[in-house]
Amino acid sequence: MRIMGLDVGDKTIGVALSDPLGWTAQGLEVIRRENVEKDIGRLSEIAQEYGVEKILVGIPKNMNATIGPQGEKVLAFIEQLKARIDLPIKTWDERLSTVAAERMLIQADVSRSKRKKVIDKMAAAVILQGYLDAGAR
């Protein structure tokens, strides 16, 4: 079962995909947000192209596990996604996913300017890999 992982932000959406067996996650692309129709249209194209069967969306929670303003925005986006894409949508706690992605890129000696271009898809891969590792398939 191929799963698409999303790291939804105000300016970008990081997209990652699992392998067909659901063991590993790889960053795919970063969507520059324009409007909901275009954003979800691109996600729909990716889902069709890769035969995605489930979507996993990272929910940014506060360190005390409450949902703050950014989390509320992501939940609203999920509702719009559900109305337009007929696939199961799951959520996953994404606390510190961007920090983990940043650390991996720094360890790989990726320059600051290149990190900025790929950090969102790497964060999406971290979110999706966490889900896969937890056996939540």
TrEMBL record:
Q: Which Gene3D superfamilies match?
A: YqgF/RNase H-like domain (3.30.420.140)
Q: Which InterPro entries match?
A: RNaseH-like_sf, YqgF, YqgF/RNaseH-like_dom, YqgF/RNaseH-like_dom_sf
Domain YqgF/RNase H-like, first and last residues per copy: 1-101
Q: What is its EC number?
A: 3.1.-.-
Where found in the cell? Cytoplasm
Q: Which family does it belong to?
A: Belongs to the YqgF HJR family.
This chain belongs to which protein, by name?
Putative pre-16S rRNA nuclease
